[in-house]
Amino acid sequence: MNISSLFLYRTIAHNMARLKIPRKITNPPIVKGFKPYGPDIDSKKRESIILNFEEYEAFRMCDYDMYNHYQASALMNVSRPTFTRIYASARMKISKAFVEGRQIEFEGGKVYFDSDWYQCNSCGCHFNNPEISISIQNCPLCGSSEVERHTEESLGDMPRNSEDDLCICPECGFTKEHHYGVPCRNEKCPTCNSPLIRKYH
Amino acid sequence: MRIAITSQGNSLESILDQRFGHCKYFVIVDMQTGAIEIIPNPYSEAEEQAGTLAVKLLSSKNVNKIISGEFGIKVKPLLDSLNIQMIMYKKPNIPIGKVIEMLNHNN
User: Fold this and answer.
1) What confidence tens digit (pLDDT) does each residue in A50-84 have?
2) Is there a contact between A130 and B84 if contact means CB atoms under 8 Å apart?
3) What is the DSSP string of B30-98?
4) pTM (global) more than 0.95
5) What structural domains does chain B harbor?
6) Is the ipTM of this complex over 0.90?
7) How far apart, in Å, are the Cα atoms of A165 and each of A176, B55, B104?
8) Has residue A151 got a pLDDT over 60?
9) DSSP conformational letter for A184
10) Where in chain A is the domain with CATH 2.20.28?
11) Per-residue pLDDT at B45
């Protein structure tokens, strides 16, 4: 029995579902749902189909933007097999709504919305735009109109100010300079061998 | 519009705290009424989950914007899903009063 099957066994034995990774949504739907029309449709009698945001996003990326599953899964921040499952579920729901003449509602799902980041050239602050429908004109802090949208590259060199932080030993008080990207708990104190903790400047 | 600012102390002369989850105090400014509320951060000493717990606290106070130095990797998607705007202001030693002054220039 290897480690992964042991893990599987424990998961089943404890009857606990694996946690879902939040799916990244870049384009939420512009409408709340769809209604069928026709003589025999009494949509109030029938339950509508709930299409999750992640399913909408998967459907949009595959069939509207023509990404393949691998590219789309990376954009959504999930694994390729998970993406394929979400996509299959989306198609099943949409076909069910079409065939049975039901309403489609967009709702729920374990998702987060990825918003755009901006920089103000007047006061130097960085901020995001939580309302995708409203475009940013002014800096929310100083009100200046000199705002600039971040691109993928410029986000990489955003200043980090962790250079002044220290790793400190909780037992004897030994301190050393913190290196960015190296968790303090992975480093041991040379005198008493206990894991270090971060001390912020 | 209610704006939360992370602070190192409980007065307007205190310095803006560069950390979000582990800051000492939150200063909540109501832009309509001009009311200022200072609440201590109960999670400033927490070793884990300080950011997510602080987000819960602030969202229960109906905050629309948060001004801090930096936001953690777990906090960003959480605030995104709650439609709370994040403002990162990295200049050191900025007093809270100055930040509020800048916000008032806005109107």
Assistant:
1) 998 889 999 998 998 888 898 888 888 888 999 99
2) yes
3) ETTT--EEEEE-TTTT-SSSHHHHHHHHHHHTT--EEEES---TTHHHHHHHTTPEEEE---SS-BHHH
4) no
5) 2-105 (3.30.420.130)
6) no
7) 9, 24, 33
8) no
9) G
10) 115-156
11) 86
Q: Which amino acid is at A54?
A: E
How confident is the model at residue A159, as a pLDDT? 40
| Torsion angle in degrees (nearest 10) through CA of B40, B42, B45, B47 | -140
Nearest CA in chain B to A132: B83
Q: How far is CA A116 from CA A132, A156, B6, in A?
A: 8, 14, 22
What is the rounded CA–CA span in Å between residue B48 and residue B51? 8
The CATH number of A115-156 is 2.20.28
Interface test with B, best of A141, A154, A165 (most B CBs within 10 A): A141
More confident residue, A131 or A146: A146
Cβ–Cβ of A123/B67 closer than 8 Å? no
